[in-house]
Every structure is written in C-alpha cells, then in structure tokens.
Batch of 3 targets.
Target 1
Amino acid sequence: MGTVTDIIPRTGSAGERVANELRTAILSGQYAPGARIRQEDAADRHGASRVPVREALRILEAEGLVTLVANTGAWVSRLGLEECEEMYQIRERIEPLLLRYSIPDLGQPEIDHLQYLADAMERSDDIEEFLTLDREFHLGSYAAARTSVLGDMVEQLWNRTQHYRRAFTRVFRSEGDRSVHHDHQLLVHAIRRSDLDEAERVLYGHIRRTRLELARHPDVFLDPVTN
C-alpha cells in the first residue's frame, strides 16, 4: 500500500498539467484575447480543484499568456496596437541576437528539421497548422542558444503576440503573399552556411514585415471580448 504522498498527487504536478492544457488552448485560439478564464469552469474542464487551477494561472501569467487581477479574476492577455508595435520592435532587435547565439551550436539534424518545417509550412493550407509549425521553426532555430535571460524573454514575447500572428497569417494568405515562406527558406540556407550576418538580416526583416502589416490592420485590436 502506498504512502499518502503516493496516493494524493502533488499540487505542483496537477498545476503544471492544467497549465499545459490551458497554454495549448490559449495558443491555439480556443480562448480569444481578453477572454475571461473562470477558475470554477477551468477546474471542471480540466478535472482539477481550484488550487492547481490557481497555480496554473500564476504559471501562465509569468509566461505572459494570462493577466491576473487581484480579487477579480483571470483574463487572456490582450494587446493594443501600440503595445503590439512595441513588442514587435523589441523582437526585431533581440531575436536576431538570439539566433546568432544559437546557430554555431545547431547540429545537422536540427538544421534538416528546420528545412522540413519550412517545406511543411509551404505545403500547409491550414492556418492553425501553419502557426504550430512556424512556432516550432523559430523557437527551434533559437534552441541551441545558451542564455540565462534572452531565451525566456523571447518566448514570453511570442506568447503575448500569438493571437496577432494569427491575424497576420490570415492577411498574407488572403492576399497570396509568399514572402513569409521565402524568408523561412532564406533563413535555413543562411543557418546551413553559418552566415550569422545574413541570418540576422533575414530574421529582422521577417519580423518587421509582420509588424508593418499589423499596423495596416488596426481593426485586429478593436474587437473587445465581453464577459
């Protein structure tokens, strides 16, 4: 017969499980920006008590996915146009540096996988599949970087701008724009050649294009979620 700790799961493990499930739901668009996450609903949906749900929400707040208001509740993080513009300008400057740190330690299997992801994105007709592949592509290209701050900062910015990349993806697909795919292929070629300057240049332009396109569509930021 097991001990008490064997029978009763630790709150930490339950909280991490709920955080993983909520994170996936938020990033996949099941929760819109500004949507309220009610603790009781989340507890029922994820088969947990409110204690691990509260822990999960704190984890997601630290990742930039959720905004907690004391004695009020939790909402999916939402950005205005100016905030999003600022975050993209930060990304333009720090992600090329993170990529520069990463490239020297990317092995051949990792680079081949980046090529696979770039090709798969070109073939995909599904927006959610594209976003999943795109996230894996870029964060995978940074994965070999050995940093104590920069990697976590970039991932948080990715989390907070996820919904707006979805909006950008709809725009470039509707207009038949293939530049995103062209950039991905150029990035893989630069990484394969260990051309750090070219990789930084391509990535900077890639992020900048998204920022400028979003600025052309301020309506993306004007549809508040009411709850």
Target 2
Amino acid sequence: MDATMRTVLLCVTVVLQLGLSLGPLFTEEYRSRPLATGAFAALACVPAVCSWWVLRQRPLPAAVTAGGTAVVLAAAFCATAAVDPGRRFQAPDWSFGLVQWHLLLLLLDRIRLLVAVLAAHLTASMGTFLVAGPPDRAAIGAACTVAFGAVSVQAAVIVISRLLRRRSREALAVADEHDRLELRVLTARQWEQHQRTLFAGQLGTTLPLLAGLADGALDPRDEDTRRRCALAATQLRRLFAENDETPDPLVHEMTACVDVAERRGVNVSFAVSGAPVTVPAQVRRRLTGPVATALSAARGRARVSVLRTGEAVRIAVVTDTDTDTDSGPRPEAVTTADGRVEVVSDHYGDFLRLEALWRR
C-alpha cells in the first residue's frame, strides 16, 4: 500500500511542480531570480531521484530519505529568501505548498517524523512572514488561508494513508488466516485419505482370512491359521494405536503389539531405555512391522527391548517359535523415504532373534 501511495504522490508532486510552480517562476518578480531558479531545480531533483525506487515498488533507502529531506528544506529556505517579504504566501511564494508534497513523498512511511518536519516548516514559514514586518489584516488573512488549505490537504493525505495501511494490514491478516484454514482443511483431508488407505490395505490382507474362516476353508485349530489370526490382530491393534495422541508414539505402538501377544498367553518381557525421540510414522511402521510378525509367531515367551540414542533407534526381539534349525540367518533391509531401516533376523534352534535399526 505504501508503494502505491508513493507512486501517486510522485505523480502529484511532478504535476504540481511543473504545472503550477513553473509559471510563477518566470512571470513573477523576485529579489534573486537565480536563487529561486536554483531552489526550483533542487526540488525537481528530489522526485527524479526517488522515481528510481518508487516506480519499482521499493522502499526509499534511509540515505535517500535523509538527503532528500535536507535538500527540500534547504531549497524551501532559498526559495523563501528569494521572495519579496510583502509577497509571502502569494503567487511568487510557490515553494510553500510544493515543499510539503516533497516531504510527503520522502517521509510517508515515517509518520511521526513527517508531522514534525511539516510542523517545523510551517512554523519557520510563518516566523519569517511575521519577522519581515508587521503585516496588515488582509495579508494575515491571506496567509492563514493559504496555510490552512495546505495543512488541511497534507493532513488529509496522512490520514488517508494511515487508514489505507491499516485496512491493508487487516486484509492481509484475513487472507493469511484464510490460507491457514485452507491448509488445515487440506492437511486433514490428506490425513483422512491416508488413514483410509492404510486401513484399506490392512483390511485387504485380513478380509481373505476372515472369509476363509467363515466358509470353513481355514481350520481355526490349525497352527498356521492361528498364527495368521494373531498377526492380523497385532497389525490392526498397532494401526489403531498409531492414531492415538501420545507423547511417545513408538513405545505406545510397541505396547499395543505386546498387549496382543500377552492376551494370547505369551509371557512378554518389555524394556525401554533412552529418552523419547521423534520417529516419523512411516519409519515406525517399518520398525514395528517385523516385531508384530515375530510376536504373532511366539509360542510362550518373548523378550522385547527398545534402545534409543541420539544417533539411532534399535528394537530387538527374542521369541520361541517353531522354525527350521537349518534355515540359518536371513538378513533383510528395508529403505524408506524417512531414512534407512535395517531388519535382521537370526534363527537358533527354537528361538528367533530379530533386530530392527533406524539410523537418524
């Protein structure tokens, strides 16, 4: 908004200086015409220099503002000195109203300084007018009329600029809040769609199991069927736990997996060490997925430990399970977008040792 106001002020200043002030400079009588001409040229340089930043919608540098203000005040003093004292606040004194537009152009974004400079310029102009000699009532009335008209216009410009700036900030705040709300809605929709996809994927592996049990194709007394049911229950419980608001989501999801195993009669020893660390949801799924598989295959005992450090998160599981003693170690590595999760499982007799590692 300040950039737009400055562009308008630049146009107004140029039009007033060339359209209203140039004529009196050559038609009126002056005590020192070269001094008046020099002041006019100095004032003309100010909008010419400011146009480099104003037309590019950029704020004026502090050096340009300070230097321009000094030039304007000096030019105003010279232009006033070139006018005959009896012609102050008349046609030859074209600089009085013009200078204030230059100050508005320079100090629009510094309202307090602008008001102070305008007041100082008005006081100095009225002071030189009164010191030059005792004016008559007509001269005082004319001077007050000119001063009141100029001050009213400048005050109106200041008030309008302040009002527009405030409205602009309010509009930007409303727009930002609208954007934040839209972002929240979009994030909620994406999260909901993501959750639906997860549940659909999990149910996609569970529904065939339920259908097999329902139509009698699978025997509930069969060990493999019971293991599949245990795995499905563990995965669903971990998926439900993923949506809970907890300070330590990883341990919460691990506790859900352990709870399902304990409900099946497995004696589980669960230990956690290290301070909680932030683990992305996708990485948590990669870490807890093999653990859920191992616990679903446990027969009577299991030991689960979670170790968290500043560099890595390690989950180790030892369970007793029916496995082929000659199968040997079977390492496996899984890569995710959030980091590398390494899963290694070793079979020793009737025991399965599994370790999942995520390096932060």
Target 3
Amino acid sequence: MMADKVMTRDELAKYNGQAGQPAYVAVEGVIYDVSAKPAWQGGRHHGNLAGQDLTDVLLEKSPHGKRVLKDLPVVGRLAE
C-alpha cells in the first residue's frame, strides 16, 4: 500500500537524516525511508545524500539496483 503523502523536492530535502530528521530518498517518484539502514547512518551512503531523488544513481551507478528498495517503508510520492 502506497503512502498518500506527496512531497516536493524542497520538502524531501528536509528529510536528510541529520539533526534528528529521518532519512528519505526518492526513486522513480516513490519516497522511501532509509533511516533504519545502518549504511545510511547520518543521511549519507557512499557519497549520496538522503533527502534527494536518487533514481539515476540507483539505476545507473549502484551495483544493488532496485532490489534494495523492496523491504523499505514507502512514505509517499515525489511531486512532479
């Protein structure tokens, strides 16, 4: 079930995993909560920052591909 919340890129940027904020990332318009992943501690993972659309990074540069998304909580959608 997809969360109903829609966020703009500016709103997403607030969820950068720092100063007590959760860490969210967007991929293909879907926003995922990566806060519980140890690899995303502090809102950073291999030079990538939470609070951003990481579609290109995940699909074109990551060795993991989309399979890393399957167990992540969906928190909303990215506004177009």
